[in-house]
Specification:
Layout (H helix, E strand, L loop, with lengths): L5 E4 L9 H17 L3 E3 L16 H10 L4 E5 L6 H11 L3 E4 L16 H14 L5 E2 L8 H21 L2 E5 L13 H8 L2 E5 L1 H14 L1 H14 L7 H21 L3 E4 L4 H6 L4 H9 L4 E2 L4 H13 L6 E9 L6 E6 L15 E4 L8 E7 L4 E10 L2 E12 L7 E6 L3 H10 L5 E5 L4 H8 L5 E5 L4 H8 L1
Parallel strand pairs: 1-2, 1-3, 3-4, 4-5, 6-7, 6-8, 8-9, 13-16, 15-18
Antiparallel strand pairs: 10-11, 10-17, 11-16, 12-13, 14-15, 14-17, 15-16
Length: about 475
């Protein structure tokens, strides 16, 4: 999975305003992009100015951007801009498009104006709507402003979500657990509506690959086991059981690399315990921590959620895949986010004991379950889900809080209004599985949805206006 965006830069001007001022602001914008180490291509080859102002050039620029495989387009209006050329470029590219212009200078002493950038932005936005081209807008501001910086990087996050969706391949290991009707999904709809490919494999194949690694790579497994024992307590399992757990991790990783997977949804119980006698939870934890989310109970929609969420923040923090389980015994707005043991070790709370134990619910009590509380702070909570042909992306935020100790991996999270969240999950289309991340992922996710047909953003506590206010 690539977490880097290549930007197509197409600054635009109009003849009736100052060409000199347009060129000056083009230079300032490129200087800022280089300062931020943005991967971009410009259109300096197009004409002496490297600016878009002729309708007939829109197709040339689109062809060039396609050859360069850009992921998104930025059309800063360095003076009024040529709205028709920008709209035609946007329509031909079908990529996330950023619309912005540097704030205009004061009128000259004689009363004339050099750019009228804001007026041009009003014009271009209208024509983009006529062409049915979705776009992102940053409020008219200076190139050095926080408003421009926040809006620009939020757009890049949104573009990365769109990129992640367009290349998404989810590995499905075995069928769903028999009793889990909640994780049913429509594979053909995921492909038809979103281009998401599901790559199935039988549990037997994964078990066979695990056994092959056990037999052929004992030195590698001993090395990994020694490193593991330095990090955490593994006294509840034998060395042979621990090696099985580590071999499973390698098997999943290698299968994902061969199949070019974005994430994995695994049937984590009960067949796996019958086959090799371990839980996959710790393996899931370790792989999620390196940017390959592995989600429980064959929840393909959960895997999609994980990929979108980590793409929104360029994989800057590990996601954790959780059950919504019980309300806090004392705090009416807090909820336990828990799962048997797949939360990444990098998220472990300071002072929380790190250990790998045995499953405390399943009859097998198989080993391989991570046990720790993860760190608190601000977390974004998300869920991609759908039924009856309609799909939504739920998003909201909470704050880690204190609460009773639990087996497995867990975090108590306090919300602004938990009953409102509870009703969202009751009335659907969501199930009890969510993705959490210790980062502000909601803003880029919300922005990304406007570029994704058949998907609706579902805000719990925020509104579109309140999100835009954050960016302004």
């Amino acid at each position: 999975m690539s977490y880097k965006i290549k930007l197509g830069l197409a600054p635009t001007r109009r003849d009736v305003f100052s060409k000199e001022d347009a060129w000056k602001h083009k230079e300032l914008i490129e200087k800022k992009l280089k300062e931020w180490e943005i991967d971009y291509v410009n259109i300096d080859w197009l004409n002496d100015e490297g600016l878009l102002f002729e309708d007939s050039d829109a197709e040339k620029v689109a062809d060039y951007f396609k050859r360069e495989k850009v992921d998104a387009i930025f059309c800063p209006h360095v003076n009024f801009g040529t709205e028709s050329a920008v709209a035609k470029l946007g329509a031909k590219m079908d990529k996330p498009l950023l619309l912005w212009g540097p704030r205009d200078d004061a009128p000259l002493p004689n009363g004339s104006r050099t750019r009228d950038t804001q007026c041009g932005l009003f014009a271009t936005s209208k024509i983009l709507r006529r062409f049915n081209v979705p776009f992102t807008y940053i409020v008219n501001s200076t190139v050095d402003s926080d408003t421009f910086k926040k809006g620009f990087f939020n757009f890049l996050g949104a573009a990365n979500v769109v990129k992640a969706l367009s290349n998404m391949r989810i590995g499905q290991i075995s069928t769903r657990p028999e009793g889990f009707w909640t994780v049913m999904y429509n594979e053909s709809e995921l492909l038809e509506k979103f281009g998401i490919e599901v790559v199935p494999v039988s549990l037997v194949e994964i078990v066979d690959l695990t056994k092959d690694i056990l037999e052929s790579r004992d030195d590698k497994l001993k090395e990994e086991l020694a490193e593991l024992k330095e990090r955490m307590d593994v006294i509840e399992m034998s060395d042979e059981e621990a090696k099985k757990m580590l071999a499973l991790k390698l098997a999943l990783k290698e299968w994902a690399e061969v199949k070019n997977l974005s994430a994995i949804a695994i049937q984590c119980w009960n067949a796996l315990q019958d086959a090799i006698g371990i839980m996959p939870c710790f393996a899931n934890s370790e792989l999620t921590d390196i940017g390959l989310p592995v989600v429980c109970e064959t929840d393909v929609h959960g895997a999609v959620t994980a990929v979108l969420t980590q793409a929104a923040v360029f994989n800057s923090s590990s996601i954790f895949f959780a059950d919504l389980t019980v309300r806090h015994p004392e705090n009416d707005n807090a909820e336990l986010l828990w799962h048997c043991g797949p939360f990444p070790y990098s998220l472990k709370a300071e002072g929380s004991e790190g250990k790998i134990g045995k499953h405390f619910i399943l009859d097998s009590h198989a080993p391989g379950v991570a046990e720790w509380e993860i760190k608190g702070g601000k977390v974004t909570i998300t869920r991609f889900d759908g039924d009856n042909g309609e799909y939504k992306l739920l998003m909201g935020e909470g704050e880690g809080t204190s609460g009773p100790k639990n087996k497995g991996t867990y975090l108590w999270v306090e919300f602004k209004d938990w009953p409102k969240w509870e009703e969202k999950f009751i009335y659907g289309p969501y199930i009890h599985h969510v993705v959490g991340i210790h980062a502000e992922a909601m803003l880029p996710l919300f922005e990304a949805v406007k570029y994704i047909p058949h998907l609706e953003a579902d805000l719990v506590d925020e509104t579109e206006e309140s999100l835009q206010e954050r960016l302004r």
